[in-house]
Design a protein that fits this description.
single chain, binds flavin-adenine dinucleotide, alpha+beta, Alpha-Beta Plaits, GMP Synthetase, Chain A, domain 3, five-stranded antiparallel sheet
């Protein structure tokens, strides 16, 4: 929290920039904005604990206003926490050291749709579903459909290096972001041109993509578009185990086939999410596939993929489970399954590894997490020719808050340690935020020093989202 004099000065200058209606110092607003979708914060709130609060929440309407606000914050050495949709799962928007929460939701304009170059220019506060529905009306898709599409916005997608459910075909947000406008801690505005690629030094867009508010505020982006696919076919294949499912996925990519959806559920996740609607033998693992494109091409891709699956021991379930998942993919979150009662807490650990390590990472993480009494279920949800991600969901119940939070942290510590030991990477799409902050150094190794030096240059006063992404706290 800021001292009274600094806060008074800050509020006066903020009001001069955005006017009296576009900021709040109200405690109720601060409490409501104190957390994102990090399950531990939600569990703590249910248990009656309080979280750190922002001193001021500001709603700018333009890049110019963002620039002025950052200049003021930098002069007064006030922390700034950018807020997108607030659906991040890692405590990234938590105002750990108080200060300003800079909420981009008023910057929600779709500025230009360019059908010739297949691009859309958009302000960072545009909610994912609003963007997707607008470009759909013009016959296009962004190809970026994370399950948080209705809750997150473009700035949040880019700041966390998010991945959509169709990423195997269309790519992740770092593949889709061609142009970027960001504001640095001193208020300077930086623009990276929208070009298909370039050979003019390192790609600075990639420095800002995934920076989680610690290096800049993202104010605008130019994203790729794709023509809406004329057809989408679903196919479901049930394997006796995870191993045979992964072998089949690898073989599909080796044929040069890129399904839009590739999701392999392990036995526990199949039991919870598939067996409730379809008859599946206990211990089996369901693979959901989807194929986008012209019907004649989709037919060929689908039939080759089905043949590969059957050769690897799968039973053909037709379109059923896969289509059902697609049509109900938002249901499991509303109401959230993480809204557990008493002193139960759960979370998701999304990791990524190459094929040679993926199965070991999976078995080892599962083993060490279960050793704490956690129920663990997983799906392999973003797959590539060279490897893929595992989305591990865990729940644990304890008799009191103290042991619940301690067990939660031990599961994370041991889970991430097992992931790194077996050669995986600790986050595929959710980012680092507060949850994984202490593991950043172990994950990045020698490159962490480079990241810290870049941070010192771009944000010498340490005002940008302090305490996140392994970066030190605000002094
Ligand atoms: C139900 C549910 C489903 C989800 N499904 C997926 C999924 O399929 N794929 C996936 O990748 N993730 C998923 N997530 C996680 C999360 O929603 C995404 O990571 C998303 O990208 C976060 O965007 P947001 O706008 O909600 O960001 P926020 O939570 O507001 O912010 C996240 C981080 O980015 C920073 N930030 C936000 N906006 C800006 C900006 N303009 N400039 C600089 N920094 C900024 C914040 O400071 C914070 O550190 C899911 C979350 C939920 C709750």
């Amino acid at each position: 929290m800021l001292d009274t004099r600094t806060k008074a000065k800050l509020v006066e200058q903020i009001e001069a920039i955005v006017g009296p209606d576009h900021f709040t110092t109200d405690e109720t607003d601060a409490v409501l904005n104190a957390h994102d979708a990090w399950p531990l914060s939600e569990a703590k709130i249910r248990a009656g604990e309080t979280l750190p609060l922002a001193d001021v929440i500001v709603y700018p309407s333009s890049t110019e206003e963002v620039s002025k606000i950052l200049r003021v914050a930098n002069d007064l050495r006030v922390p700034v926490v950018p807020v997108g949709g607030g659906a991040g799962t890692c405590g990234g928007t938590q105002p750990t050291y108080g200060g300003i929460q800079l909420d981009l939701k008023r910057m929600d304009k779709i500025l230009a749709i360019d059908g010739e170059s297949l691009l859309v220019r958009v302000q960072a506060g545009t909610v994912g579903i609003d963007l997707e529905e607008e470009v759909n009306r013009h016959g296009y898709t962004t190809g970026h459909t994370p399950t948080s599409l209705r809750a997150s916005n473009v700035g949040g997608f880019i700041a966390t290096r998010s991945g959509g459910s169709m990423s195997s075909l269309y790519g992740k947000i770092e593949d889709l972001t061609l142009g970027l406008e960001v504001v640095l801690a001193d208020g300077s505005v930086v623009r990276c041109k929208a070009v298909p690629r370039h050979s003019v030094g390192p790609d600075l867009r990639q420095l800002f993509i995934g920076s989680e508010g610690t290096l800049c505020v993202i104010t605008e982006a130019t994203l790729r578009l794709f023509p809406l696919p004329p057809s989408r076919h679903f196919r479901s294949m049930c394997f006796p185990d995870v191993h045979s499912g992964l072998m089949a996925i690898r073989a599909i990519f080796r044929e040069g086939i890129f399904p839009s959806v590739v999701r392999l559920y392990d036995a526990e996740d199949t039991a919870l999410h598939v067996s409730t609607h379809f008859e599946v033998e206990e211990g089996n693992c369901m693979l959901m596939l989807a194929f986008d494109g012209r019907p004649e091409k989709v037919d060929i891709d689908e039939s080759i993929s089905a043949r590969i699956c059957i050769e690897n021991g799968a039973k053909d379930y037709g379109e059923g489970p896969s289509k059902y998942w697609w049509e109900h993919r938002y249901d499991m979150y509303y109401p959230t399954k993480f809204a557990t009662s008493g002193f139960s807490v759960g979370d998701t650990i999304d990791i990524v590894a190459t094929y040679d390590r993926l199965e070991n990472v999976y078995h080892e993480m599962k083993r060490v997490m279960e050793a704490h009494g956690a129920a663990v279920m997983s799906h392999f949800s973003h797959m590539y020719p060279n490897g893929g991600s595992i989305y591990m969901i865990f729940f644990v119940s304890q008799p009191d808050a103290e042991s619940a939070w301690a067990t939660y942290r031990e599961i994370w510590d041991d889970g991430v340690a097992a992931c790194l030991r077996e050669g995986g990477t600790m986050s595929h799409q959710h980012g680092v935020g507060t949850t994984r902050s202490t593991y950043t150094e172990a994950e990045l190794g020698s490159s962490f020093e480079v990241l810290k030096k870049i941070k010192e240059v771009l944000d010498p006063n340490g005002i940008m989202n302090p305490g996140k992404l392994g970066m030190g706290g605000h002094t």
